[in-house]
Amino acid sequence: MSASPTSTIARRGNSPAETSRRPARPDHREPEHRAQSGHRGHRLATRILGGYLPLLLAMLIVSLPLLWMVLSSFKSPSEIITTTLSVWPRDPSWENYAEAARSVPFARFFANSVLVTVVGATIKTLLSILTAYALVFIRFPFKNVIFILILVALMVPPQVAVLPNYALIASLGGLNTYWGIIVPGLGTAFGTFLLRQHFSTLPKSMFEAAEIDGAGHWQRLWRMAVPISTPSIATVALVTIVNEWNDYLWPLIITDKPSMMTLPVGLTLLTNTDSGSQNWGVLMAGSVIVILPILIVFTFLQRYVVAGLTQGSVTG
C-alpha cells in the first residue's frame, strides 16, 4: 500500500505552506560573483591601458611615417604639396622611382652599400666572437680592466671619434676608399659585451671536459661555443648589419665622389639634384630604395633577436 503525496511531503517537512512561510536564505555567491567580475574588469582595464594602448601608440608612431613615405613615393607632386589631405595616391605610378634612378647612380650606391655592409658586418661579428671568448675562457693579465674599457666605449657616442679618425684615415690616404669607410668602425663594444655575457652563462664543465679530451681553444670556440650561441651571434650580426647599412655620418665625411658613396649618402646627393630638390615624390622613392633591403633582412632574422638579447642579458 503506497503512501499519498501529501503524507510524503509531510514526513519530509517540505509542505508548500511551510516552504512559502520559510524566509529565503541569503545567496552568498552573488557578492563573490560581483567581486570576481569587478576583478576581471580591473585586470582587463589594466591590460588595455598598460599594455595594448602603449603598444598601439608605439606602433602608430613607428609605422605611420614609413607608410606615408611609401604612399607618397607613388604620388605626383601636385598630390603631395597640397592643402587637401590625400592619403591614398589617386593615380599611383612608378615614375618617381624611375626619375630617382635617372638622377643619381642608385645601382652604384647599392653595390657600395652591400660591399661595405657585408665586409664590415662580417669582420665586426668575428671580432666580437673572438674577443668575447677570450674575455671568458682565456686567462691573461688585466682582463677585467679591458672589459671595463669596453663598457666605457659602450657609453661614449661614436661621433666623438670622428675628427681623430678622419685625421688618421686622411693621412694614410684612405679618402674615397672602401677600407677608409670600413676600418674605423670595426670595433663593436655592444657585440663584445652581449657575447661575453652569453658565453659567461655556458657550463664551464663542458669546456673543461673538452680540454681534457685534447680540444684546443680554436676547437672549443667553433665546435662548442659558436653552435650553441646562434641566437646571440645572429642578434649581434643583425644589429651590426643595420648599423653598417644605415651609417650616414662617417661615409658622408670620408667620401665626396659619387662612385664611392653609399645609399644614405647618395640620398643626400639626390636631394641636391634639380629633380629631387623640390620633388618630394622622388625623395620618398629614394628613401624607400634605401630602407627596403634592410627591412627584408630584418624580417628574416628578427626571430633570433629576442632569444639572443634574452640569453645575453643573463649573467653568469
TrEMBL record:
Residues 110-301 form the ABC transmembrane type-1 domain. The chain crosses the membrane at residues 49-71, 114-138, 145-166, 178-195, 221-242, 280-301. Keywords: Cell membrane, Membrane, Transmembrane, Transmembrane helix, Transport. Residues 1-41 are annotated as: Disordered. It is a multi-pass membrane protein. SUPFAM superfamilies: MetI-like. Its main location: membrane. PROSITE patterns: ABC_TM1. Coiled coil: none annotated. Belongs to the binding-protein-dependent transport system permease family. This is Sn-glycerol 3-phosphate transport system permease protein. It comes from Brooklawnia cerclae. The lineage of its organism: Bacteria, Bacillati, Actinomycetota, Actinomycetes, Propionibacteriales.
